[in-house]
Amino acid sequence: xxxxxxxxxxxxxxxxxxxxxxxxxxxxxxxxxxxxxxxxxxxxxxxxxxxxxxxxxxxxxxxxxxxxxxxxxxxxxxxxxxxxxxxxxxxxxxxxxxxxxxxxxxxxxxxxxxxxxxxxxxxxxxxxxxxxxxxxxxxxxxxxxxxxxxxxxxxxxxxxxxxxxxxxxxxxxxxxxxxxxxxxxxxxxxxxxxxxxxxxxxxxxxxxxxxxxxxxxxxxxxxxxxxxxxxxxxxxxxxxxxxxxxxxxxxxxxxxxxxxxxxxxxxxxxxxxxxxxxxxxxxxxxxxxxxxxxxxxxxxxxxxxxxxxxxxxxxxxxxxxxxxxxxxxxxxxx
Length: 334
Description:
The chain is of the alpha/beta class. The chain has two domains: 173 residues, Rossmann fold, CATH 3.40.50; 100 residues, Magnesium chelatase subunit I, C-Terminal domain (Helicase, Ruva Protein, domain 3). Helices cover 49% and strands 15% of the residues. The chain contains 15 helices and eleven strands. It has a five-stranded parallel sheet with strand order 2-5-8-1-9. A hairpin with a 2-residue loop joins strand 6 and strand 7. About 3% of the residues have low confidence.
């Protein structure tokens, strides 16, 4: 499996999701690390478009689920349908049986629905009645949260957030990226109008045809995942990763300030996620070894949702990002 194929996919995503390079790389890291991600940002920042663009470049099915307060677990998992002609029940699979799932505004659905999704993410299967059904081998969930509107929402508990490989925060693009977004949107609108218009009007637009995107097969994705797991990581860097996680659990060893900011540290899932993500990033950057830069680059996304701040930190206006910045300054690279 050549890295060139993933580089082509990354270029495609970057051309479709302008000004969100961190989101593009995080999507590919989640794909390679076999994990799920939660993305937090204001509306209109191409979160839905991002997963759609990823699905176009993969041999994969895609389904978007809009989470609402009246959603039921069966709306995700599927349910048994009664057939009166022969008196039997037949299972009708729900949208969770797709390869790529966008859980839009996950915090708008009640706890039962959130639990159904998180069970599927954690176990790779769902249970309906007395039967258990396996989900596809390639299964990636991207959940989104809108930080602006909090009324009528059901925030995910910290223990459930731990199921996500990464928590990505995205913001508004800069002026240059905004201009590119305008051009891209105008071009897509012209293309859409040309398809519905006459052949002559399509010729008047006179734009070169898009190069056909090479679609990655699922076997190629699994092969890439195996290569990622075989990336070399020095024992000293493994110790560095563990020290970073231990600093969240035993902050008193490092700094009184850090100790006053942290109520609970990260679980062993954080160590595993940090290892997987740093390896995936090294592979994406065409290296056969992990560097300290790889660990530090994914550190915030992996830990942001896994630490619980103290009341004192909240009173002082300290954010998770600031705490993680401080940890990086305290823990030395071995």
